[in-house]
Amino acid sequence: MSSPTVPAFTVLGTGSRAPERVVTNDELAKTVDTSDEWIHSRTGIRERRLAGDDDSITHLAVAAARAALADAGLEPAAIDLLIVATCTPDLPMPATATLVQAELGLPAATTCFDLNAACTGFVYAFDTAWALLASGRHRHALVIGAEKMSTVLDWNDRTTCVLFGDGAGAVVLGPAPAGSGIVATKLGAIPGTRDLLLIPGGGSTPLAPGAPRHLQMKGREVFKFAVRAMDEVSRELLASRGLTPADVALVVPHQANLRIIHAIAEYLGLPYDRFFANVDRYGNTSAASIPLALDEACRAGRLRRGDLVLLVAFGAGLTYGGALVRW
Ligand code: ACO
Predict the structure, then answer these.
(1) Of 88, 98, 186, 228, whose CA is between 20 and 30 Å from 318?
(2) Can you tell me which atom of ligand 1 is nearest the CA of 42?
């Protein structure tokens, strides 16, 4: 848990970019044994955006970052910290953050690194950026979640390929106007849950010939962990500042499944209209999902100065995390 005495920093601007290609459930049903009815009733997803070869993670991240910088009214030269949360980087090295830095024209003195906490990646990066800003070593941070999940899916596996999509979202963090600011963050990971959700191929662990190398998931178990972890971390975060779920104006949760979002609303005892969801149009974009949803929520006028906003996520690991922001 972060110290309550840190200087105030907050979200100064948001931006997002999704690939142009929309793939509906009906289109997927032409190539895998599924249906719009099954996908929508189990997940809330209607369509997702899928990247082509030209839509690199760097390309999506740069577009989202430019939009966030414009929203914040800042030039690239103001940024001195850049974190890209992704589990699908363009290359194993160098870090995507350095590629984004070059395209955006950020100063050489910018600290640039990637962070992988799967679907919790953005919340982990948000917490890390806040800690570095609060340390006094940095002034303005760009925190990006960018994923090309389409590259790690088995497009013949109907239990996973229907769930995910590609995209990027970004926020600029910097000194907060009076009365606003990041209030608290909390991160964690549940030991021994590796096999519930993993991509076994592509790392340095050799795979047996013919072994599956794409994303694998035990959906039902992940579902239960997800709801419990997001409920608990939300309550702990709020309680750490003497707050309750009723104080939250808007929850922007990880967009994996509408049924998970409804379940968290029920567990927290909050009406569903205090949640923002766009999983119907993007599917699960992993680390990109919260900043993409946050950007849409801002642009839709769902956030007002003084509102208490809760970001909460879970992902492979299984990792989980939350952040509370006074808007
Ligand atoms: N179309 C049609 N039928 C399907 C499909 C599909 N796309 N996928 C599975 N089915 C079938 C199964 O084969 C099974 O058939 P059977 O009963 O004949 O064996 C039946 O539907 C039920 O399958 P379940 O897996 O039990 O379905 P469930 O109701 O649990 O829903 C789902 C599956 C949507 C994956 C759900 O478990 C879920 O959302 N889990 C959480 C997953 C999640 O959020 N993952 C993201 C993690 S975040 C990250 O870090 C990546």
Answers:
(1) 98
(2) 34
